[in-house]
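Q: Convert this sequence to structure tokens.
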Amino acid sequence: MVLRGQTPELARQEIWGLLVVYNALCDLAVAAAVSLGVDPDEISFAAVLRLTRTHLGADTICWHCGSPALGDTPHEVLITAIAAHPRNRTGRQRTSPRTKAQRRTAGTRNVTYTIDIVPSNLSKAA
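A:
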């Protein structure tokens, strides 16, 4: 992922912003799990992310009269949508162990990350 911050301070600020959003999404997953009475690991993070993106653009205004919609808050509507999504299968048992080739994936290799901040090639806005 390429960060947009042009200085180390802005890069740190962007990283903190990403961490705040991640924690907010985890809170939504936990709230949906509590409403269902299940373990939070059963809630798909990808589904939470997708549904949150979808609901951010959703109107909370009544399309009949233009007044705020009555009933559930947007937060409650989102949690209900997350809870309605199919859950992860956390208790599944493998029929055979993974092979060495399957264990050697990009997600399990030792990876080193570097952050390089380069000057922008965009023109300055007047």
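The chain has four helices and no strands.
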